[in-house]
Design goal:
7-stranded mixed beta sheet, single chain, 15 helices, 8-stranded parallel beta barrel, alpha/beta, TIM Barrel, globular, 546 residues, binds ligand TNX, 17 strands
Length: 546
C-alpha cells in the first residue's frame, strides 16, 4: 500500500489531521460543544428510550409527556390505497412481533383510533417532507406516521424502533417488558440525498445472506445506498453472460487463498429486491482499468501482454491494467456495463477508476471515458473514484473523494463543472482503518480512525472551494482485505457507520460530539439485543453490561 500515501503526502496528511484536531479543539467552524477528554471517566449514559437519543439526530423532536404503549390489542394500519405503505406496515409488524409476542395485525385502512399505529402517505404535494422526510406524532392512545413518499414511512419506522425499549430488538419473546414509546412530535428529513455504505465483496466474498444482513444494519441509520465493490484483483463476483470464465476462473479465490464465490444474476436480483424493500439502492461497481487481475486471469486477451496469470490473493494494489489498445477491452466493457446497468434500478453504475498506477494517463482517459459512455448509453450515471475527475468523463457523473493524499484540484474543478461529489475521506469514513494501534483487524494507511475521527468533520465544508450544490452526500466504505466474517463487518462498522450516517442525514446545527457519543451509547443495548458485537470505543459512555 506504500504508493497510496507517499511519504510527503503522508506527512501532509498528518499535518492536516493535526490542524483538523486543533480546529476541533477550539470549535472553529462548527461552533458547538466539542468534548474534552473525560477526566473522571465517561459521563453516565441515558438508558431510557428517549427523543434525545434518536440517531441520526432528527430535524426536531419535542416530547409532550405521556406515552403510547404497544399491547396485545395494538394494530397497524396503512393508507388504504397504498401497497408500499402496507408493505412498510408489514415490515414494522415483522420487526416487533418476535420480542413482543403480540399478533400486531396489519390492515389496509384509513381508520384511526385507540391502540393504532397509523401509517399515512400524503403523496407528492408535501414539499417539506419531500422524498424521505416524515412526521411522527405519538400520543397516549395512537401513533401517526406521516410521509409524502414510502421511503419516509420507512425512515420513520427506524426512528420508532429507537423509541422502544432495547429488548424490542430481540428475536424471541421477552417477558415483563412494558413496550412504551414516549409521546411527542418528530419532524425529520435528510441533509443529503445520498448516504451510502460501501462493501467490498471482492477481497473477501460475502454471500447473499451476509449482504442482506448488512443491508438491514445500514437501514437502521437511514442509509439509502449500498455501493458494492464487485470486482478487484482478488475476485470477480458477478456472473456476466457470454463471459463465463469471469466467474469460473475469476471468482474461485479471495485474499488469503480462500474459496471466494460469486453472485449469479438471479442472486444479484434478489439482493437488489431485498435492498429496495428497505429503501436502499444498490450501486454496482466494476473497477477498471486497474484492480483487474481476476478479469485478466479469466481472459488473458484483456491484457496487453496476453500472458496467463493467476487470480491474486495478496493485498497490494496498483499493478494490473486492462489494455487500452485492444478492441476486446471495449467489447468486454460494453457487455459487462450493459448487463450490470440492466440489473440496476438505481441511477448509478460504478466504473471504479482508482489506483491505476499500471495504466498510462492517456490509456486511463481512453478506458474510463469509454466506460462512462457505456454507462450513459445504458441510461445510467457513471459513478467513479476521485481519479476519474482527471479523465474528463463529462456530466452527469459522480466522483467520490477518498484519498486526502491525492491532489484535489481535478476533483474540485470537476465538481464546479457539474460533476456531483461524494465525500468518503479515508481518514474519517473508511471503516477498514484500525480504530487504534490495538485493533487486530484493518489497515491503517490513512491513520487510525476512532469514533470521534469518524464523526468530527463536516461534509458541507470539507473541500474548500467546492460549490455546495455539487455535494451529493457521504459514504462510509468497508474494504475487506482483513475482514472475512459478518462478525468482522459488525466490529469495524459499529460504531463508525452510524457516525457517517449522521453526517449525511442530520442538520449541521445538531453536530455536537458530546451529544453524539451519548446517542451512540444509547444504541449499545439495542445492538447487543440484535447480536451485533460492536467495538466498545473508550470514547463512548456505553451503559454497563451493554
Ligand atoms: C484504497 S479506496 C482502495 C481500495 C483498498 C482500500 C484499503 C480506493 C478507491 N481504493 O482498493 O481496499 O484503500 O483501505
Amino acid at each position: 500500500m506504500s504508493h497510496r500515501l507517499h511519504r510527503k503526502s503522508r506527512r501532509s496528511l498528518i499535518v492536516i489531521a493535526l490542524a483538523v484536531c486543533v480546529l476541533c479543539a477550539v470549535g472553529v467552524g462548527i461552533g458547538v460543544g466539542i468534548s474534552r477528554p473525560h477526566k473522571d471517566g465517561p459521563p453516565s449514559a441515558v438508558q431510557r428510550a428517549d427523543f434525545a437519543n434518536i440517531l441520526p439526530a432528527p430535524v426536531s423532536a419535542t416530547p409532550t409527556g405521556g406515552q403510547f404503549t404497544i399491547t396485545s390489542a395494538t394494530s397497524i394500519h396503512a393508507s388504504s390505497d397504498s401497497a408500499p405503505a402496507l408493505a412498510v406496515a408489514d415490515y414494522l409488524a415483522t420487526l416487533l412481533r418476535p420480542a413482543t409476542g403480540y399478533a400486531l395485525p396489519v390492515a389496509s385502512a384509513d381508520t384511526d383510533g385507540a391502540g393504532v399505529i397509523r401509517l399515512v402517505l400524503t403523496g407528492e404535494g408535501d414539499k417539506k417532507l419531500d422524498a424521505e422526510g416524515y412526521r411522527l406524532d405519538i400520543s397516549d392512545d395512537q401513533i401517526t406516521v406521516t410521509a409524502a413518499q414510502p421511503a419516509g414511512l420507512f425512515d420513520a419506522v427506524q426512528t420508532l424502533r429507537q423509541l422502544l425499549p432495547p429488548q424490542s430488538a430481540k428475536g424471541s419473546a421477552q417477558r415483563g417488558v412494558v413496550w412504551s414509546v414516549p409521546a411527542g412530535h418528530v419532524l425529520d428529513y435528510p441533509r443529503f440525498g445520498y448516504r451510502a455504505a460501501g462493501l467490498d465483496v471482492a477481497r473477501h466474498f460475502f454471500g447473499v445472506a451476509d449482504v442482506e444482513r448488512y443491508i438491514d444494519e445500514i437501514a437502521l441509520f437511514k442509509i439509502n445506498y449500498l455501493h458494492l465493490h464487485l470486482t478487484d484483483d482478488q475476485g470477480w463476483r458477478l456472473a456476466i453472460d457470454g463471459w463465463p470464465k469471469l466467474t469460473d476462473v475469476g471468482a474461485r479465490t479471495e485474499v488469503g487463498g480462500g474459496a471466494g464465490g460469486f453472485y449469479t444474476q438471479d442472486d444479484y436480483r434478489k439482493l437488489v429486491a431485498y435492498a429496495q424493500a428497505r429503501y436502499v439502492t444498490i450501486i454496482p461497481e466494476i473497477d477498471v482499468p486497474g484492480h483487474v487481475t481476476a478479469a485478466l486471469a479469466s481472459y488473458p486477451a484483456l491484457s496487453c501482454d496476453g500472458k496467463t496469470r493467476s487470480v491474486f490473493t495478496g493485498i497490494d494494489t496498483g499493478f494490473s491494467s486492462l489494455c487500452a489498445a485492444k478492441p476486446t477491452t471495449y467489447a468486454f466493457l460494453d457487455d459487462v456495463l450493459r448487463q450490470i446497468a440492466a440489473l440496476t434500478p438505481g441511477p448509478y453504475v460504478g466504473i471504479g477508476g482508482d489506483e491505476a498506477q499500471a495504466t498510462s494517463a492517456a490509456d486511463y482517459a481512453k478506458i474510463v471515458d469509454e466506460a462512462a459512455a457505456d454507462v450513459r448509453a445504458a441510461g445510467k450515471t457513471p459513478w467513479g473514484w476521485q481519479e476519474t475527475a482527471t479523465a474528463s468523463v463529462g456530466t452527469p457523473s459522480v466522483a467520490t473523494y477518498w484519498n486526502p493524499g491525492l491532489p484535489g484540484a481535478a476533483i474540485k474543478q470537476a465538481a464546479n463543472s457539474g460533476t456531483q461529489l461524494v465525500l468518503d475521506p479515508a481518514n474519517h469514513s473508511y471503516l477498514d482503518q484500525k480504530y487504534d494501534a490495538e485493533t487486530a483487524l484493518g489497515l491503517h494507511w490513512a491513520g487510525y480512525v476512532e469514533v470521534q475521527n469518524a464523526y468530527d468533520w463536516d461534509p458541507g465544508t470539507y473541500l474548500p472551494g467546492v460549490n455546495q450544490d455539487a455535494i451529493l452526500g457521504v459514504e462510509a466504505d468497508l474494504w475487506t482485505e482483513t475482514v472475512a466474517t459478518t462478525g468482522d463487518i459488525d466490529y469495524m462498522a459499529f460504531p463508525r457507520l452510524p457516525a457517517v450516517a449522521e453526517l449525511g442525514w442530520s442538520p449541521e446545527s445538531t453536530h455536537n460530539w458530546s451529544a453524539f457519543r451519548d446517542r451512540l451509547a444509547a444504541q449499545g443495548p439495542r445492538w447487543s439485543a440484535m447480536g451485533i458485537k460492536y467495538y466498545h470505543s473508550p470514547q463512548v459512555p456505553w451503559p454497563a453490561g451493554s
